[in-house]
Design brief:
Mean pLDDT: 92
GO molecular function, one term: ATP hydrolysis activity
Radius of gyration: 18 Å
Order of helices and strands: EEEHEHEHHHEHEHEEH
Keywords: ATP-binding, Nucleotide-binding, Transport
Oligomer: single chain
CATH architecture of the largest domain: 3-Layer(aba) Sandwich
Protein name: NitT/TauT family transport system ATP-binding protein
CATH class of the largest domain: Alpha Beta
Family: Belongs to the ABC transporter superfamily.
Bound molecules: adenosine-5'-triphosphate
InterPro entries: AAA+_ATPase (IPR003593), ABC_transporter-like_ATP-bd (IPR003439), ABC_transporter-like_CS (IPR017871), ABC_transporter_ATP-bind (IPR050166), P-loop_NTPase (IPR027417)
CATH topology of the largest domain: Rossmann fold
Amino acid sequence: MDAVIEAQRVSLTFQTADGPVHALKDVDLAIAPGEFVSFIGPSGCGKTTFLRSVAALETPTSGRLSVNGMEPDAARRARAYGFVFQAPGLYPWRTISGNISLPLEIMGFSRSERAERVARVLDLVELTGFAGKFPWQLSGGMQQRASIARALAFDADILLMDEPFGALDEIVRDRLNEALLALWRKTGKTIGFVTHSIPEAVYLSTKIVVMSPRPGRITKVIDSPLPPERPLEIRDTPEFIALAHEVREGLREGHGYD
Ligand SMILES: Nc1ncnc2c1ncn2[C@@H]1O[C@H](COP(=O)(O)OP(=O)(O)OP(=O)(O)O)[C@@H](O)[C@H]1O
């Protein structure tokens, strides 16, 4: 099947006061529909820059990038994806349902359509009872679930997530990983997910993209042999441990964490 996200020799150089920064160099990647792809690598290897380029928030210096067969900018206008940032970024003066419906209001959806969509995505992230609460009445993990719901409200086939659980403690993160995996299985969306965590990447992904800095590039792409059904205990299995080892070796080969 055709790739939903395809990068061909994508490079991006930032011109800074200290000289050029090669954030991405010759990145080639094809992501098929329904894949869960994690990007892992040390700070500064270009993970965020790649995801932001897919979302048309950055413009590559050279190379070709397509999203649903379109240029990233056209894909953005066609609302081809939802984007989840590292911080939930909810407006404190709006309720949870008010936050989720805000982009829909801006896009001109009717009141009934907004209500229907908000109810559906709140159910997907298991926050149905919290629609009328304000962000400060929710825990950090619940706030991040609300921001995922907001990204899902467009009903796009692609979800781009930039380290969405990085600021959360491990137990909350485990629970959100489970919930995200369940959501992915239920919706069949294509997910691009940036993380610093090897266990998180291995637990969630069908494909793990290992990156290395200076210049930012892909050093290894690992297809996961793990089944789509993944209870948390799968992390104790030999298959999981072997895969985590392979990712760690990939990072080491790219001098990632040395
Ligand atoms: N707007 C910008 N202007 C100049 N340099 C930038 C800009 N954005 C990113 N960079 C640089 O590009 C490189 C890649 O950054 P990027 O944020 O993509 O890395 P990352 O792998 O996501 O890192 P982290 O894990 O710390 O978020 C870094 O050296 C960073 O300093």
